[in-house]
Amino acid sequence: MKRIILILVAVLVSSCQNDIENITISGSVLDSSTKKPLKDVEIEIICWIYGDSIDQSYTDKKIKRVKTDNEGKYLVTFEKGAFIEVIANFKGYLEVHESGHISSKKNIINVKLKPE
User: Cys-Cys crosslink for 109: which of 27, 53, 70, 88, Cβ 3.0 to 4.6 Å?
Assistant: First the structure.
């Protein structure tokens, strides 16, 4: 009986924390008033990783910085991850933070910036 309980606990713990491999984070950045794309917006993407954690805590993070293109779009890739933070910063606009758990290889996080 104890053996069955230990096996069930191990399965539950391992199923609760999984890094998704080969992930893509992409999106568009728009002016919230005009709905027009904003180019050259600084985007910082923080990707949190479980790694070999047995206590469901993040063990590492990778940070990438990019700027949006002429159409207000950005794209980054990571080897693996479990949680993502996107920070958008552009002169004349309020900084925006978006975050969420990664549940698939392709993730879209669109951002609307409000003028100051």
Answer: 27
Residues near 52 by Cβ (< 8 Å), separated by ≥ 6? Answer: 59
Query: Residue 71: which residues within 8 A CB-CB, separation 6 or more?
Result: 28, 37, 39
CB 79 within 8 A of CB 21: yes
Find out whether 102 and 23 touch, Cβ atoms under 8 Å: yes
Supply the pTM of this predicted model: 0.79
Contact 20, 104 (CB under 8 A): yes
Write the pLDDT tens digit of every residue in 59-106: 889 999 999 999 999 999 999 999 999 999 999 999 999 999 998 999
Pick one of 3.40.50.720, 3.40.50.2000, 2.60.40.10, 3.90.226.10 as the CATH number of 18-113: 2.60.40.10
Query: Which of 38, 42, 93, 85 shows the shortest CA–CA distance to 66?
Result: 42
